[in-house]
Amino acid sequence: MSRRHWAQRAGFSLLAFSALMVVIPILIVIGSIVMRGMSAMSWEFLTQMPRDGMKAGGIFPAIVGTILLMIGTAVVAIPVGVGSAIYLSEYARDNFFTRSIRLAIVNLAGIPSVVYGLFGLGLFVIFLQFGTSILSGSLTLAIMTLPIIISAAEEALRSVPTEFRTVSASLGGTKWQGIRKIVLPQALPGIITGVILGLLRAAGETAPILFTVAAFFLPKLPESVFDQTMALPYHLYVISTQVPGMPLEIQYGTALVLLVLVLTLNLGASILRSYFRRRRQW
Amino acid sequence: MIRVDQNKNHLVNKISVENLYFYYGKFPALKDITIQIQDRQITALIGPSGCGKSTFLRCLNRMNDTIPNTRAVGKVLLDDKNIYSPDADVINLRSKVGMVFQRPNPFPQSIYNNVAFGPRVLGFDKSTKNLDDIVEESLRGAALWDEVKDKLDQDAQALSLGEQQRLCIARTIAVKPDVILMDEPCSALDPIATYEIEELMRILKEKYCIIIVTHSMQQAARVSDWTGFFWLGELVEFNHTHEIFTFPRSKLTHDYISGRAG
User: Fold this and answer.
1) What distance in Å separates the CA atoms of residue A237 and residue A31, rounded to the nearest whole number?
2) What tens digit of pLDDT does each residue of A33-42 get?
3) Which residue among A24, A159, B9, B157 is buried most deeply as judged by most CB within 10 Å?
């Protein structure tokens, strides 16, 4: 075999190996969590309050808390994020002001999550006196989620051909009518995908909720946005590090619930994206 | 520029352009254009690529406004009102001066919604008309009704290119314009679809003032009543189509239509 054929084959193998290296850790993580966590799975585990210093019973309040936090985050982050994306993609001219906005978004995405947590503690919990509450936690998570939603939504809006905006204008439509009736519906699948991905990140983070909302243990469910709540990632952190003699299966069970929640949403986003991509004709 | 007396009694001036200049930055894409365009006639604009004919067309409904760093100087009178005067309503202007583009570009929505788009965004008098009637009327006007009447809720982009272009014409006439601008409307179409569009133009000119930019001199000769020849941003010659193609007054025009220049 000639030298260049050999090089071709070696290169191919190397690249395939690199690609495989991405898959293997994920399979191991999922596999081990499923294997060790399945034994904890039961209807009681999902629907009951923790008992005996969290060493028995279920993780119901943590599941509810995480879902509440995701809803709270969505309520804040979707309008602000999608609104910013529409502004940046459709209205903003390229000037110092919009370049600063873009720079801010990029930097927002790069801030470590624990810094968001401290920021939320400073601004929402203490300064605005929302206290350690679902409100503070949701706002903190929303700010962390914004860059993801804005970038995805802006990209989705930009991928709608300029032509449609031109035609809308040529038919006497105002700019907003063109955006509202043509551009937004076309960009919607991309925007939804971005929103889901952003919320996923919010669902899995521990640091931002650490000081702003998460409770170690609560005997009852939260009753208003000013209440604290338990949440899956923080609960997992607590039972893994703060409670001596914690049964392993409860730890893995909790991890499994979080993983399933996140992966299901992720899968949903992927299906949605590929479904709309196939239907798209431009 | 060479011109002849256009004032025949049955013709009505629809658009008068007076000393129009158009600049991309500092580059003058149109120089001192003066032209009278008649209602219920087809006016063809010919010339080589980059001569300014499309730019000129887009000056007539101010679609060039959306391009940054451009400037129009001069007057464009539509029914004696200057569309470039500071108090002119651009959005309203575009409902009076419709446009059909080079590439058929229906929205990725149903046939019905495509035609209904204009009336919906502009609003229409619901006491005298309903949307279904407007859609049917417009599709009939574009000679498309019989082909699509049973599939109005189907995706417009599933139509053939020729049908798509007629749908775009239907969408344009649904807003009841006075003028229809056509920017090389047949360049993406096969000869049969082209023929159908040209037939349609002959019907449409009974009601509308039509201005078409075309690269095909045969097309200009076939469909138009008037022809303007653009060269390097100037209107070199404007005359009855049969005059231009039989006795061009300018040597440039003569060379271009005989294929020796351009």
Assistant:
1) 20
2) 999 888 888 8
3) B157
For the CA atoms of B6, B12, B13, B15, the dihedral, rounded to the nearest 10 degrees, stands at: -130
Residue type, A92: A
A170 with B103: Cβ contact below 8 A: no
**b/e per residue, A143-170, with b = 16+ CB within 10 A?**
bbbbbbbbbbbbebbbebeeebbbbbbb
Inside any domain, residue A184: yes
CB A228 within 8 A of CB A218: yes
B157 contacts on A by Cβ (under 8 Å) = 281
CA B46, CA A67: separation in Å to the nearest integer? 64
Total beta-carbon pairs less than 8 A apart between chain A and chain B: 62
**CATH code, domain carrying A240:** 1.10.3720.10
Query: In this complex, do A172 and B118 lie within 8 Å of one another by their Cβ atoms?
Result: yes
Q: For chain B, what is the mean pLDDT?
A: 90
Domain that holds residue A91: 59-279
Residues pairing with B98 in the sheet? B180
> A191: left (phi > 0), else alpha (psi -120 to 50), else beta?
alpha
Q: Is the pLDDT of residue A96 over 70?
A: yes
Rounded Cα gap, residues B169 and A268, in angstroms: 40
- Per-residue pLDDT tens digits for A98-119: 899 889 998 888 899 999 999 9
Domains annotated for chain B, with CATH where assigned, are 2-257 (3.40.50.300)
Mean pLDDT of B240-255: 92
The predicted complex's ipTM stands at 0.86
pLDDT, residue B2, reads 55
pLDDT (0 to 100) of residue B59? 94
How far is the C-alpha of A160 from the C-alpha of A164, rounded, in Å?
8
Q: What is the mean pLDDT of residues B51-78?
A: 92
Chain-centre distance of CA A102, in angstroms? Answer: 20
